[in-house]
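Session log. Operator J.P. requested a structure for one protein chain; no other inputs attached. Running the standard single-chain path with token output.
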Amino acid sequence: MEENLDLKEKEKAEEAMIQAAFQDLLNCYLATKHRKRVEIITKAFNFANQAHKGIKRRSGEPYILHPIAVAKIVCTEIGLGSTSICAALLHDVVEDTDYTVEDIENIFGPKIAQIVDGLTKISGGIFGDKASAQAENFKKLLLTMSDDIRVILIKIADRLHNMRTLGSMLPSKQYKIAGETMYIYAPLANRLGLYKIKTELENLSFKYEHPEEYATIAQKLEATATERDKVFKEFTAPIREQLDKMGMKYYILARVKSIYSIWNKMQTKHVPFEEIYDILAVRIIFTPKNLDEELNDCFDIYVAISKIYKPHPDRLRDWVSHPKANGYQALHVTLMGNNGQWIEVQIRSERMNDVAEQGFAAHWKYKEGGGSEDEGELEKWLKTIKEILDDPQPDAIDFLDTIKLNLFASEIFVFTPKGDLKTMPQNCTALDFAFSLHTDIGSHCIGAQVNHKLVPLSHKLQSGDQVEILTSKSQHVQPEWMNYATTARARAKIASILRKEAKVNQKEGETILADFLKAEGIRMDDSALDKLTRLHNFHTHDELLVAIGSKKLTLGDTDRNAFKEKPEKSWKKLLSFSFGTNNKEEKESEEEKAPQVKATPNKIDTKKILKLTEEAISKEYIMADCCHPIPGDDVLGYINENNQVIIHKRQCPVAARLKSSYGNRIIATQWDTHKDLSFLVTIYVKGIDCMGLLNEVTQVISRQLNVNIRKLTMETNDGIFEGRIQLYVHDVDDVRTICNNLKQIQNIKQVSRIED
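Structure written below.
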């Protein structure tokens, strides 16, 4: 009886918690400028609450709290209205309960149903072994998104809440979700202008993938906070004085670089935390006197503050006159403070700040009468994604990479011969520009004139270049173009044209081969194709047929002989089997042919953490060549097609791709090693050259630390030396000790571990 009472009390408490969460959502919605459609939101909540009744999340709380939290993010942090809030409340109903998309359409109408359908994962089992369900689901998401952008915005909100509550998940799930977030969702949020969300997604992913580094940087940020506050006050005091004189309505914020951005910079620049100087930036947000003067006010503030502090000549970024493709507008200027430190100042109006925080959703707020959700730049971007989706990619990972290419963050401005401005991604080539104009121009492109100088197709464009594309009717797409096409559009188009050509050549190859085999009296079947494929060292039948069709391979006597040898071989085999003389040599040659693979236990429990012991490392697991992990590194395991476990560093780019596409094969791993095995690492050193420096370096490594050097290369240029030292170490602690001891040498200024 008591148990029943306890249960009822618990249910009552949960129901009160759910109602309070929903009321909080309603209050947030009522505080917005949207048309107030409380009835339909309440209806969606009651429906979802009923559908998810009794279901708990892994953390133990009622499941319905998740859709409510997602709806709140959609409302407050992205700024969307009632349709999106309803879709967010209903986003898991079809996936997790017996209700269908048709049921949702009958109750809530086609629009909400379409968004919910876009957010519902494709149920498993319909893909081949090699297809990635993750990539397919993402593809479906993008397909629906190209009809309604709200699909992806709700998905990003869903992902943000999942990341905020990731602590209750299994470690392997954590790595999969964190990796996918870093690889796809953070760039997507950035592309849609959701900077605040993008930063939080990156930080949370980093927190789960590298907890120790996260904690260290967070501590250091906290320790230096007082100093930063002091610098901020001193730096902004004369600026405030000047803006007050001008009669501006404004407020000034300090923007601290995110933990992930700091770590990323430490990795790429090979510098410690103490040497990162742009941790603090200043943001001036003003209210313009009227909207027509908004741009002028930005430049007036810039002129006023550059009279107080000296601006950096190469660091003016004018996103006011030329907004980014995601709508971002601001004026960035870097000023020299009184303490000899460069500080970036971002100048924005309140409207620009809203767009920067909430992305495209904020645009709609500022339109007359609530406005349309149609944005020029957004439309262009969606058009590109539609083009990629129209051309089906054979490989899921390729598809993800292609999309990823299109999520560029940095942009340059390029002019056509007539003076029209085009926004292009950084590092784009003349070939990319040709394809951005038209597919026909791209496919017949032979070169370009940049600023009236002739350049090849692989030439990288700079901001401000004027580009004229040169074409020829006789030119057609070359396979090597894939090496220097960098934009998603260009790569997708080139791949599509090459595939079409390959199909034509394949058909032609089939005809030629059929005629050849017919003349020889040989039946054209799989065994005949297998024989020729092996003979010419191709991987697939298709490759063989394409080579024959494109005249790269001409069939002749060698091929005829291959078919004539067959009876001899089978006779020999028969003899050897019947007399049992399968000699040693033959066995050995067979063994040689078979790839040498490490055996892995058949059953691997992906839910458990895999212990990496010394014995297991040497016998069962493969250390990835791309990132060379060593004990102490943050690592994860990937189970490949042969059921082998490959160990990667968590920040390894290859691992990032695998987490995003084959997350179900990711396994959490933990080092459990003693100091028996040695691993190869590369240490990079840089400093001022002087007599006896090399001797000091080798003394520290060999004598003090008793570590073996495998290879040492030093290079001196104008009194500055750079060196790479390959060493055998036991774990990360060894690397740390070596780096710290090398830093003690007087003329060495930089020491870091690098991937060779």
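Operator note: The chain has six domains: 12-168, 217-365, 377-483, 497-586, 610-671, 679-754.
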